[in-house]
């Protein structure tokens, strides 16, 4: 069960070929990975992989192991949706042995990859089926006022039937992406193909175990509905029979309308919601105000777009299991 979602597509920032050539001419060297660490660090060592943001980096590191050096375009603490690339980052794409990214999530990256001429590209969305955000995903909860989201994203050309990019929040689909990235690494570096496929299989097993934990952990719940500030959890809701209602839609910084807030009050009362979820990378002001108005508690549900000091875990698997515990408590399954 899902509310209508409109994917966040920030205005593309394109870089001219003059800028790209200028960055290369300056001899930009020593590009380092952004984030909490990389695998196989060291200039010139291993396959040079550029990952667009954390979920793509996690795949590259887990599957690439000691054979890869990973650079991440999205720094910790930066809102991944709104990434803007520097000339140095744009230049790094053309020098990469493999680029791992998710088309439609960060338009600046989409444009830069298209212009880079890089030979080997692993586009996550091509390895699994993406869910749509259009009318086909309405359900009996539409009476709660989902249509109020329609006018809350001025400045973003979402497209009524565009794909939801948050595929990594479904462990099963993320495993399908992992298999695809393993094959892309094998193609980019045939000498270590067996290792990449072995590592991809190992990661797939970890993700299947995570899926089993979610299925077992969410059994016998009191309610299926949860409220978030950021409409990122549609895949997770689909997988486990849940229903997500969001305050701000796909854009965590957008302001909801008064009608939307009124509709959410009704949802909370009718569906027995006792928790409003926010995320550490975006403002929690609206979530806390809404929760205070209804006497609800607040908690963190992390979309795992990045790992930082406030994350409830050191990697994707740990943060997802923290999400599971938060959901169990909120849904009455704990």
Give the CA-CA distance, first to last residue. 21 Å
Outline the low-pLDDT stretches.
1-44, 134-160
β-strand number: 8
Structural class: alpha/beta
**What is the succession of H and E elements?**
HEHEHEHEHHEHEHEHEH
**What is the overall silhouette?**
globular
The main sheet orders its strands as 2-1-3-4
**Mean pLDDT rating:** 81
- What value does the Rg take, in angstroms? 20 Å
Q: So how many helices?
A: 10
Task: Tag the structure with descriptive keywords.
334 residues; alpha/beta; 4-stranded parallel beta sheet; 10 helices; 38% helix; 10% strand; globular; disordered N terminus
Structure report:
By secondary structure, this protein is of the alpha/beta class. Helix content is about 40%, strand content about 10%. The protein contains ten helices and eight strands. Strand 5 (about 225-230), helix 7 (about 235-240) and strand 6 (about 245) form a beta-alpha-beta unit. Helix 1 (about 15-25) crosses helix 3 (about 85-95), helix 2 (about 55-65) crosses helix 6 and helix 3 (about 85-95) crosses helix 4 (about 105-115). The longest helix has 25 residues, at about 195-215. The radius of gyration is 20 Å and the shape is globular. The chain starts with 16 loop residues before the first helix and ends with a helix. Residues about 1-45 and about 135-160 have low confidence and may be disordered.
């Amino acid at each position: 069960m899902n509310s209508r979602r409109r994917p966040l597509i920030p205005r593309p920032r394109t870089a001219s070929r003059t800028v790209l050539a200028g960055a290369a001419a300056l001899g930009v060297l020593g590009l380092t990975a952004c984030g909490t660490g990389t695998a196989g660090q060291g200039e010139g060592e291993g396959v040079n992989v550029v990952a667009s943001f954390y979920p793509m980096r996690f795949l590259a590191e887990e599957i690439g192991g000691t054979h890869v050096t990973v650079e991440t375009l999205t720094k910790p603490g930066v809102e991944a949706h709104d990434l803007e690339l520097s000339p140095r980052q744009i230049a790094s794409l053309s020098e990469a042995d493999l680029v791992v990214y998710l088309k439609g999530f960060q338009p600046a990256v989409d444009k830069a990859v298209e212009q880079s001429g890089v030979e080997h590209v692993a586009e996550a969305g091509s390895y699994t089926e993406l869910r749509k955000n259009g009318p086909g995903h309405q359900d009996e909860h539409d009476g709660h006022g989902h249509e109020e989201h329609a006018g809350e994203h001025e400045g973003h050309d979402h497209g009524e039937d565009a794909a939801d990019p948050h595929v990594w929040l479904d462990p099963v689909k993320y495993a399908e992406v992992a298999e695809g990235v393993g094959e892309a690494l094998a193609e980019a570096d045939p000498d270590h193909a067996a290792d990449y496929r072995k590592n991809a299989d190992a990661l797939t097993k970890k993700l299947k175990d995570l899926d089993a934990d979610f299925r077992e952990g969410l059994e016998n719940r009191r309610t299926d509905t949860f409220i978030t500030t950021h409409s990122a959890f549609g895949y997770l809701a689909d997988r486990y029979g849940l229903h997500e209602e969001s305050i701000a839609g796909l854009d965590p910084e957008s302001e909801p309308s008064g009608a939307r807030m009124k509709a959410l009050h009704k949802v909370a009362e009718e569906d027995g919601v006792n928790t409003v979820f926010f995320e550490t990378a975006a403002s929690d002001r609206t979530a806390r105000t809404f929760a205070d108005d209804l006497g609800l508690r607040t908690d963190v549900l992390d979309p795992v777009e990045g790992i930082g000091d406030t994350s409830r875990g050191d990697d994707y698997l740990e943060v997802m299991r923290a999400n599971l515990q938060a959901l169990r408590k909120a849904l009455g399954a704990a």
